[in-house]
Amino acid sequence: MTDIVPTLWSNFKAEEQANYYVSLLPDSRIDHIVRWPMDGTGPNQGAKKGDVLVVDFTIAGKRYSLLNGGPQFPYSEAVSLMIIVDTQTEIDQLWSKLIGDGGKESACGWLKDKFGLSWQITPKRLLDLIGDADSAKASRAMNAMMQMVKIDIAKVEAAAKG
Fold first, then answer.
1. Is the pTM of the predicted complex or chain greater than 0.90?
2. pLDDT surpasses 80 at 158
3. CA angle 93, 96, 101 (to 5 degrees)
């Protein structure tokens, strides 16, 4: 079987970043760390034998890798990780963890963590409401969500009801 493992570029903080991400959700862990087998060459001339090159890790049962590549390719909103949650408590806890220590709120349930990676903290209930067969109900839910920074499930539900 072929695996697809999203690999994130890190600005020389792959191990710190991976440890941070695995602290967020259950069924998360560091799986393997690959270290430079020799001093770096080319664009990685600053790397020394034994420095972290790649960290393979699991978040909520899904595999990822972080490559210690440097500052050349910063994150943008073109790629985000969505965490689908069930409760407002989960939203509030994850939101606090991810914006803490230097993260930044955005809009519509989006934020950037302290490393600059974009996340969407998305309640399943929101997805159900904006996908409702009743287009007026779905539109009201979507309009409510578009006015929010962090998603408030009760307010989205109230808006959907009309």
1. yes
2. yes
3. 145
